[in-house]
Design brief:
Elements lengths: L10 H10 L4 E3 L2 H10 L4 E6 L13 E5 L12 E3 L5 H18 L4 E11 L2 E10 L3 H10 L1 E2 L4 H6 L9 E6 L11 E5 L4 E5 L4 H18 L2 E4 L1 E6 L5 E4 L6 H6 L13 E5 L3 E4 L4 E4 L3 E5 L13 E5 L2 E4 L5 E4 L9 E5 L8 E2 L4 E6 L7 E4 L2 H9 L2 E3 L9 H4 L2 E3 L11 H13 L3 E6 L2 E4 L2 E4 L2 H13 L4 E3 L6 E4 L2 H5 L3 H5 L5 H23 L10 H14 L6
Parallel strand pairs: 1-5, 3-18, 4-9, 6-8, 8-10, 13-23, 23-27
Antiparallel strand pairs: 2-3, 5-6, 5-7, 9-10, 11-15, 12-13, 12-14, 15-16, 16-22, 17-21, 18-21, 19-20, 24-27, 24-31, 25-26, 28-29, 30-31
Helix pairs in contact: 1-3, 2-4, 8-10, 14-15
Length: 557
């Protein structure tokens, strides 16, 4: 065993783990889960061959299985309940609810699958998924997304560094329902590494719930929890990009040649496009999953990447002339169609050294396509107030919410440890020499006068950053940020005309308002949740005062 079972006394852990050992539960295998999934009523067996099924102990003729949910095809963040925030009455009430949920669950046949989280022998956590036998496809996908507890991962885990943490336990019952929780219920006790996912069918709840606990374990061991992508280009230090779905995170991370801009010597090695940890003591970054869980909205019927599919969720299926069944992607059936696929579609590795460049991807039209941060405190502040827009269909939220700009600290809506812990870990990383940049991947300007920022420009910027080609000048109306001095040389002769921040009053007022949005958000975290420090608010206040002095000089004479 590479983990040490020193578990703090917790009723939450006791309730969930005890349910794991009931007579109704037995350990399953990937092969059995595949056979059960084939018989699961709502599953469709397609004619697409599964990529390299033998690595999971599956038959050579295994095919891609499609599971489709009903009305909800994305994550339901409002279902999350953090036990560390409960008062005694809440704790007693939810514990009773959880005990009843496990009791009713244990009266049905159930399965237990083991896995490993982490692709570096210095960080591997054993994990367990407990689900009803009727949920075999989600369990199969969980095993594919992480590492099932079979060779070679089992042998690597046995020799891995001992980590003083209890195993992760994820309990999921999609058949659970309760009138007080019509949107389901996710109960998280991160202190003892357990989670209960009740009344939610979507596979992403199981994936992100497990990652949530792995990230939290990492932070307890002086690591940085990262919901982002990381890659190496040639022999340069790794590049890490952080952003929510739809920000360009996967497009930037998984691009192999930056639309032809990289040379043959600048080979790309992708570590992961969604979840990793940075170990600040041992100088490595580690991916947590061997597979990719990607959107299929841009996948065509002849797409070369179909060869690398393991599984799919919430996509259409149609009959072919020869009697087969093929997937219909492109989000025809619903938004947020998904697949699990292999990283073998490009050059990849499970780990690398610490990143030398860190990029906050923001969808904030007051920001130009690229700027450089000059201080560690401001770098943290801009990450803690990362502004973006939600990707359609990824989350189970009202349509109006999708149109609003949101602030999601460090682009990680799955964080359950305190925000201040993340702030301190990122500041350590920046103080170690990691450079911080901000990329707006949406559009730049005020009101209807917006200049789009195409993907090609974003990739050109990352290329220039890695090569060290950009010369910088002070952004006089945003104290602490620098903007390109030679942007026209590398990004087109109209770069400055389109994207140079102006000093007209309309833009400055808009820029100030966006700064104030960040200040207000972080101040609320400090005053109401006691989860922010003035150290990370002061740089934004100082930047806003610079604009105040320009717009209202008489007040500062």
């Amino acid at each position: 065993m590479a983990t040490v079972q020193q578990i703090p006394l917790s009723p939450w852990r006791a309730i969930i783990e005890t349910g794991l050992y009931a007579n109704s539960v037995y350990k399953t295998s990937m092969a059995e889960l595949y056979e059960l999934s084939l018989r699961q009523p709502e599953i469709v067996a397609t004619s697409h061959p599964m990529y390299n099924p033998s690595q999971f102990g599956l038959p050579e003729d295994a095919v891609v299985l499609v599971s489709n949910d009903g009305s909800v095809v994305g994550r339901t963040a409002r279902a999350r309940l953090l036990v560390r925030t409960f008062d005694k009455d809440q704790s007693d009430r939810i514990q009773a609810l959880l005990r009843e949920a496990v009791y009713q669950f244990n009266k049905r046949p159930a399965l237990h699958l083991e896995g490993v989280i982490g692709l570096h022998s210095d960080f591997m956590i054993r994990a367990h998924l407990l689900s009803p036998a009727t949920d075999a496809k989600n369990m199969l996908d969980w095993g594919i997304n992480f590492c099932p507890f079979i060779k070679p991962w089992k042998d690597i885990y046995a020799k891995s560094r001992i980590i003083n943490e209890p195993d992760i336990i994820a309990f999921a019952d999609p058949e659970w329902s309760h009138p007080d929780y019509p949107n389901g219920c996710v109960i998280i006790d991160e202190l003892t590494n357990c989670i209960a996912i009740l009344g939610l069918r979507y596979f992403g709840e199981r994936k992100k719930g497990t990652l949530t606990l792995a990230w939290t374990i990492g932070v307890r061991h002086n690591m940085v929890a990262c919901h982002g992508g990381i890659k190496k280009i040639g022999n340069m230090p790794p590049v890490a990009v952080f952003g929510l779905c739809g920000s360009g995170k996967s497009s930037i991370t998984n691009s192999l040649d930056h639309e032809g801009m990289l040379t043959a010597e600048e080979k790309v090695t992708v570590i992961h496009d969604d979840a990793f940890l940075i170990d600040l003591e041992r100088d490595f970054s580690v991916a947590l999953e061997p597979s990719l869980f990607d959107k299929t909205d841009a996948v065509t019927s002849e797409d070369a990447q179909l060869k690398f599919f393991y599984s799919a969720q919430n996509v259409g299926v149609m009959a072919t002339a020869d009697g087969g069944k093929r997937m219909v992607n492109g989000d025809v059936r619903n938004n947020n169609g998904r697949c699990l696929k292999s990283r073998d579609m490009f050059r990849h590795a499970g780990h690398c050294e610490r990143p030398g460049i860190l990029i906050w991807l923001q969808k904030d039209t007051s920001l130009p396509p690229i700027s450089k941060v000059t201080s560690s405190s401001l770098a943290v502040a801009m990450g803690a107030s990362l502004s973006t827009m939600r990707a359609k269909g990824v989350e189970n939220v009202d349509a109006l919410e999708l149109e609003k700009l949101v602030i999601e600290p460090f682009a990680n809506p799955f964080r359950v440890h305190s925000l201040l812990e993340d702030c301190e870990q990122f500041r350590k990383l920046f103080k170690m020499g990691c450079e911080c940049f901000i990329m707006n991947t949406h559009a730049f300007g005020v009101g209807d006068e917006l200049e789009d920022i195409p993907k090609e420009l974003s990739l050109a910027i990352v290329t220039a950053l890695v090569r060290g080609n950009i010369q910088w000048r002070e952004w006089r109306t945003f104290k602490g940020l620098l903007v390109p001095k030679n942007g026209n040389d590398y990004f087109g002769t109209d770069f400055d005309r389109k994207y140079k921040p102006s000093r007209n009053s309309g833009y400055l007022r808009f820029q100030r308002d966006r700064m104030q949005d960040r200040i207000t958000f972080l101040s609320r975290k400090r005053d109401e949740e006691h989860d922010m420090a003035n150290t990370f608010i002061a740089p934004l206040v100082s930047a806003r005062l610079t604009i105040d002095r320009i717009l209202e000089p008489d007040l500062y004479r």
